[in-house]
Amino acid sequence: MDSPAPLGAPGTARARARAELTAAILDTARTQLADVGPAGLSLRAVARELGMASSAVYRYVASRDELLTRLIIEAYDALGAAAERAYGAAQAAGATPGERWLAVARAFRAWSYAHPHQHALIFGTPVPGYAAPQDTVGPAIRIPALLAAVLMEAAASGDLRPPARPLPGPSLATDDTAGVAGRPPAPYEDLLERALLVWTSLIGSVSSELFGHIKGAITDGEKFFDRCVVMTAEVAGLDVPLD
């Protein structure tokens, strides 16, 4: 059996140096997001900021699109991890499905307020010419999957109200959507569409507040967001308690 390479061996040192420089590139790119937005992101500008030749940066990140993809995946994963921690803490405390839902929604808002430029990157205007690859899908669905799980748990436990007015016709949710949590049982056949409405409403509520679209229209953004969570969850048949 080969002995492990000692600390400081050339291969290990190169790997560490590569990891450190890649992290520096991503850090600089995040600063660019705040200054020029996703559409203005430039590997040449990143190279200038780091005092590197453009050709050197391309050895670590092949293109502007790859850099965007890395930042997008990083943002989705950070947001998903924050939501999952909130869900886990609520679950450990014996919270009801509605309380777990509120915990996830609040974690989403809190993360977005702490990272507004990353929120804008993943939920804002699409970057012209950029098409997100399949690698972004898994990170992107972490919170929707979590919310779908809450709804399915609530349906199984009897905590979800059947719709008073079912949507007409077959569900418009795709198989990909159903793959997140499975097709819901009767009488919740339209639950996936209702869940998508709730999820997009949460994104809209946070974005509208974060970017000042409802400034002056409400007296307390945090309390208003909680009320939005309560009202939209009712669309899916879930009661979310508020203090």
Explain how this protein is built.
With 243 residues, the chain is mainly α. It has 2 domains: 62 residues, no CATH class; 164 residues, Tetracycline Repressor, domain 2, CATH 1.10.357.10. It is 64% helix and 0% strand. It is built from 11 helices and no strands. Helix 10 runs antiparallel to helix 11. It is elongated, with a radius of gyration of 22 Å. The N terminus is likely disordered.
A few lines on this structure:
The protein has 243 residues and is mainly α. 64% of the residues lie in helices and 0% in strands.
Largest sheet, strands/sense/barrel: none
Helix percentage range: 55-70%
| Poorly predicted tracts of residues | 1-10
Per the CATH scheme, the topology name of the largest domain is Tetracycline Repressor, domain 2
Number of strands: 0
Number of domains: 2
CATH top level class name of the largest domain:
Mainly Alpha
C-alpha termini separation: 62 Å
- Write down the Rg: 22 Å
Overall mean pLDDT: 90
CATH superfamily of the largest domain: Tetracycline Repressor, domain 2
User: What does the overall shape look like?
Assistant: elongated
Corresponding CATH architecture of the largest domain:
Orthogonal Bundle
Order of helices and strands: HHHHHHHHHHH
What is the tally of helical segments?
11
| Beta-strand residue percentage | under 5%
Indicate the structural class: mainly alpha
Oligomer classification: single chain
